[in-house]
Write a structure and sequence with these properties.
Sulfite Oxidase, Chain A, domain 2, 8 helices, globular, 14 strands, 7-stranded mixed sheet, binds ligand MTE, OxRdtase_Mopterin-bd_sf, 312 residues, 5-stranded mixed sheet, molybdenum, alpha+beta, single chain
């Protein structure tokens, strides 16, 4: 979903859905190095969002193998650190501690909370989720985190709050990608009903340890029934608002990337099919499922929204 300033918002097709150029790079935090190693990397402090590994919630199982970290950890979209999939080295510049999240907007009382305090309040669990990028690749990973609904409950939103708007950090010095023309900071949003769905998950870890930087450390969203761009990384602000947020990708290419972005194999992207997906770490394609296989849990959210562009 690379967008370069060509003519208007034209997107060069050859830069979309790149084929498997996997570098078998050693994982940033391999094996069970655990929190001690994770908390200090190359002399830099990382947010201690432990303890890891957290107990697995078996209600969120998968019918396909987990994607090994050597593939998912070196094939990332994190435009703050460049448009290449190999952002791992550049994302090393992300300073994740201290990390404070601002909760504001239509809430009983706005507050700031450190990510460690937040985790202490809400607890952690592990879930196995699918992830389907709009570029037609997918992975299956064990996230560690907590339901977004727990953060909503802490925030005590007012009745006028209709949407949750999430914002990534803005630091042009730290993140070279933010020196480009894109509409920084990265913003995403979902309705209060979506945020209250049990599948909406805030992740602080993956593969049984804190998030390595390139995955969006120290805290990100995981919305498995939506295209991956909805799963915003490195969140610094959670705002409760009355109006539908204008999201990063919607601002860049409204005809290609909408607010809802629910996975649907029957609705092609304007420039490519969404019928199947390439599973990271393999050369095979598998059929894509409506709502990425989570229809039973989420289809009801959209029953009264049939006039909306739910699948773009
Ligand atoms: N969040 C921010 N802040 N910046 C980004 O570039 N990319 C999105 C999403 N969240 C992105 C982001 C896209 S397009 C995808 S597919 C997923 O993150 C990729 O997550 P992963 O790198 O952990 O696989």
């Amino acid at each position: 979903m690379l967008i370069k300033r060509l003519r208007g918002w034209e997107i060069p097709e050859h830069l979309v859905t790149p084929e498997s150029v996997f570098l078998d790079r050693r994982a940033l935090l391999g094996g069970s190095a655990g929190l001690a190693a994770a908390a200090m990397l190359g002399g830099r402090a990382l947010a201690e969002t432990g303890p890891y590994p957290a107990p697995r919630n078996d209600a969120y199982a998968l019918d396909r193998p987990l994607t090994p970290e050597k593939f998912s950890g070196d094939y990332n979209n994190f435009y703050e650190f460049g448009t290449s999939k190999t952002v791992l080295p550049a994302a090393d510049a992300l300073k994740t501690s201290p990390w404070t999240i601002k909760v504001d907007g239509l809430v009983e009382k706005p507050f700031d909370i450190g990510v460690e305090d937040l985790v202490r309040k809400v607890g952690l669990e592990e879930r196995l989720y699918r992830h389907r990028c709009v570029e037609a690749w997918s992975m299956s990973v064990p996230w560690t985190g907590f339901p977004l609904a727990k953060l909503v409950a802490l925030a005590k939103p007012a009745s006028g709050a209709k949407y949750v708007q999430l914002t990534t950090f803005l630091d042009r010095k730290m993140a070279p990608g933010q020196r480009t023309f894109y509409p920084w900071p990265y913003v995403e949003g979902l309705t209060m009903e979506e945020a209250g769905n049990d599948l909406a998950f805030i992740a602080t870890g993956i593969y049984g340890k804190p998030l390595p930087n390139q995955f969006g450390a120290p805290i990100r969203l995981a919305l498995p029934w939506k295209y991956g761009f909805k799963s915003i990384k490195s969140i610094v602000k959670v705002s409760f608002v009355a109006e539908r947020p204008k999201t990063f990708w919607e601002a860049l290419g409204p005809s290609e990337y909408g607010f809802w972005a629910n996975v649907n194999p029957a609705v092609p992207h304007p420039r490519w099919s969404q019928a199947s997906e390439r599973v990271l770490g393999t050369d095979t394609r598998v059929p894509t499922l409506i709502y990425n296989g989570y229809g039973e849990q989420v289809a009801g959210l959209y029953k009264d929204l049939q006039g909306e562009r739910l699948f773009a």
